[in-house]
Specification:
113 residues; alpha+beta; Alpha-Beta Plaits; 5-stranded antiparallel β-sheet; 3 helices; 27% helix
Amino acid sequence: MEEKEIMNYHAHVYYEPSEIPEVNKLLEKVSKAYTFKIGRVWDRPVGPHPVGSCQITVPTEEIWNFIPWLMKERESFDFFIHANTGDDLLDHTQYVLWLGKSYELNLELFQDS
């Protein structure tokens, strides 16, 4: 397998729509501790994600500082963390970490990638 350069990481918090107020509090904690780009808070499944999610873009040089922080601060939320190399299928299947429970992703989006 060809070695892919990791440009950054995406940390997706997973939640139910009723949990959005608590998710917003967690995202506020993230923004106070880090200068990461935080995406839209979705109240429904989007892309390969099976439930509501929000993407946090983590620079490569910050990932190993962020993961221990997130382990302590994530409360009961599940996180899907993956590398961003530009190869969506590999990024969402091989270059992944889960904090909390794992979910089955909708990988059909990437089958022709």
